[in-house]
From TrEMBL:
Belongs to the LptE lipoprotein family. It comes from Massilia aurea. This is LPS-assembly lipoprotein LptE. Keywords: Cell outer membrane, Lipoprotein, Membrane, Palmitate, Signal. InterPro entries: LPS_assembly_LptE. HAMAP family: LPS_assembly_LptE.
C-alpha cells in the first residue's frame, strides 16, 4: 500500500517536471516578462517636467527596454508623449464614532496622449486612475505619512507599467504620402 502511494507521488512529480521542461523548451514567455518592451517607434519625446518623479521612472524603464531613444527635442522624435494632466488626491474614506478620520483614499491620476511626428494621434487621450486606501491613526502621524509616501511610490510604479503596456499596444500608422497625380492631368510634352 505504501509503495503504491510513493509511485503515484513520483509519477506526478515526474509529470510536473516534464510539463515545466516542455514549456521552457518551447520558448514560452509572457510579453514584457523579461523587461523588454517592443514599442512601434525608435524614438520618443516625453513632456514631463524635469523634476517629475513619474517622468524619471518612465524614462528609466524605457531606457532599460529595447533600443528606444528618449529625445530632448520634440522635432527629432518619432512619437510624442503629451501629459495632459497629472494629479494626486487624498479624500476621507471613513470616520470613527467620534467623527475623526479612520481611513483615507489616495488617488493618482494621469491623462496623456501619444502623437506621431506628423501630429497624428497614435493613442487618444487616455486616463489612468489608481486608488489605494490607508488607515489613519492620529497617534502615529509620522508613520502614516511615511506609509502614504510609500503608497504613492507604489502607485507611480504601477502607473509606469500601465503606460508601458499601452505604448507597446500602439499600432503604427501608415506613412503620410502625397496624393498621386492622375496620368490624364499631366501635361503632354
Amino acid at each position: 500500500m505504501m509503495n503504491t502511494s510513493n509511485n503515484n507521488y513520483l509519477a506526478r512529480a515526474l509529470g510536473a517536471v516534464l510539463l515545466v521542461a516542455m514549456l521552457a523548451g518551447c520558448g514560452f514567455k509572457l510579453r514584457g516578462s523579461d523587461g523588454q518592451y517592443n514599442v512601434p517607434f525608435q524614438s520618443i519625446w516625453l513632456s514631463f517636467n524635469e523634476a517629475s518623479p513619474l517622468g524619471t521612472e518612465l524614462k528609466r524603464n524605457l531606457r532599460a527596454g529595447d533600443n528606444l531613444r528618449i529625445e530632448s527635442d520634440a522635432s527629432k522624435a518619432e512619437a510624442l508623449f503629451d501629459v495632459i494632466s497629472e494629479s494626486r488626491g487624498k479624500s476621507i474614506l471613513s470616520l470613527n464614532s467620534l467623527g475623526r478620520v479612520r481611513e483615507y483614499s489616495l488617488s493618482y491620476t494621469l491623462v496623456f496622449q501619444v502623437r506621431d511626428a506628423n501630429n497624428r494621434q497614435l493613442l487618444a487621450p487616455t486616463e489612468i486612475t489608481l486608488r489605494r486606501n490607508i488607515a489613519f491613526d492620529e497617534s502615529q502621524v509620522l508613520a502614516k505619512e511615511s506609509e502614504e509616501a510609500l503608497l504613492y511610490r507604489d502607485m507611480q510604479s504601477d502607473l509606469v507599467q500601465q503606460i508601458l503596456r499601452r505604448l507597446v499596444a500602439i499600432k503604427p500608422l501608415a506613412p503620410v504620402t502625397a496624393p498621386a497625380t492622375p496620368a490624364a492631368a499631366l501635361p503632354t510634352p
